[in-house]
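Async update (no meeting this week)

Hi team, since we skipped the sync, here's where things stand on the single-chain job. The sequence we agreed to prioritize is pasted below, unchanged from the tracker. I ran it this morning and attached the output directly underneath so nobody has to dig for it. Comments welcome in thread, and please keep replies under the output.
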Amino acid sequence: MQVKLLSARFDIPDAHKIEVAKEHGAYATLDKVFAMQPEEVIELVKASGLRGRGGAGFPTGLKWSFLPKNIDKPVYLAVNSDESEPATFKDRYILVRDPHMLIEGIIICCYAIKSQAAYIYIRGEYTTQVKALQAAIDEAYAAGYLGESIAGRDYKLDVTVHRGAGAYVCGEETALLESIEGRKGQPRSKPPFPAVEGLYGCPTIINNVQSIASLPFILANGPDAYKAYGTEKSPGTHLFGISGLVKKPGMYELPLGLPILEVIDKVAGGLRDGRTLKGVIPGGSSTPVLTPEEAQTVTLDYESMAAHKTMFGSGGIVVLDDTVDMVKLVENLIYFYHHESCGQCTPCREGLGWMLKIVKKIIRGEGTTADIDLLTELCDNIEMKTVCVLSAACTMSTRSYLNKFRHEFEAYVSGGASSQTAM
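Output:
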C-alpha cells in the first residue's frame, strides 16, 4: 500500500547531505530540464496532473501558465513551508530528510517560469528544519547548483530562506507575501492575484513544499509514471500524516484514492484496543469531520472528499475514538483560530471570539439550546465574509460538529455531559 516516490531517500543515512543525495539520484534531472524549453517543462507538469499539495489542490502546471507573457518585471517563486495547520506534519520530513529534493524541484520550477529568485517561507517554530534546509542550500551553492551558473549553464538562481514569526495566517499565500516584504502578515484582497501582481508587485508563483518536491520524480520518469499512481483526477502520491488515537501514528506516503478506513486499519494499525471509531478529521483541523458511517465510502482523493462535503486539505488525518469529547474538541479548535486571526476583518476578529465564549459557556453547564443554535447562526454569518478563509476554516469544521454531534452539545445543556476527554 505504501510507495516511495517522495520518500525514496527518507530512510537513507545522511541523505540530507549533498554527496549522499547525489549518489541516490539528486540533481540528475537537470540535464534533461535544461535541454527543454521552459514552456515544455510546464506542459510536462500539466500532463502529469500534479495538483497543489498545500490544501487547495489546484493543478500545478496550470497555475504556472497563468503568468503574464512578455513582461519586463522579475518573476518570483515563493515556496510555502509555513505548515501551521494543526495535524499537518508532512513538509517537515522533506526539509529534514531530503532537502535537496526540494532544491532540485525549485530549480525545475524556476527554470519553467523563468524566475531567477526563489523564497522559501518557513514556519518560525521550525528551528531544526530551517537549520537543515539552510545547510542544504549552502551545499547547493558550493556545488554550483545555485548561484550565478546553475550546473554550468547560463542560468542564474538564488534561493532565500525567510523565517516567519509563528502566525498561522501567513500560510495564506498573500499574507505570506506581505510577511516576506516585511509587513504585518495580513491577507490581501484579490484580484490582482499573485501570478499577476505578487511579491514586490511582480508576478509570483506560490507552491507548497510537497508540490515542488514532486517535480524531480515527474521530470525523471515522465507524466505517465506519476499518473500510474492515484486516480484519474487525483493522480500521484501524497505524504499523509496520520495522528490521533491509532496504534501506529506517523507519516506515510500513499497513492491517492485509497479507502480512508482501510488506511487507518492497515497502515496506521487501527484504533487502540477496545475502542470504537467516533469520527475522522480527513485533512487537518479546518476540514469538516466525517462520521464512521460517512467514512465507510470515503477515499483519499479530492473528488471523494468533495462528494462527502469535506475537503482533502493537507492530508493530515486525525482519528477520533469514543473517548473524545466533541464539545471540548470544538472549544480547542475555535480557540486556535480565534488566537490566530490577524484581526483585519471584523467577522473573524470578533465573531470567532464570540463563538469561543459561547462554547465555554456551554461547557460550564450554563448554556441553552438557543446557544447551540446561535453557534450555527454565527458560522453562517461569518463564513466567506472575510478577506481570507481563516474564519471559514473555523466555521466549516465547527458546523460539521454541530450538525453531526449535536447530541453532545445538548448533553452539556441538559446537564448530562459525560466525562469524556478532548484530544
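Quick observations from my side:
The beta strands are 76-81, 117-122, 158-163, 204-208, 237-244, 250-255, 277-281, 316-321.
Residues 418-423 have pLDDT under 50 and may be disordered.
Reply here if anything looks off.
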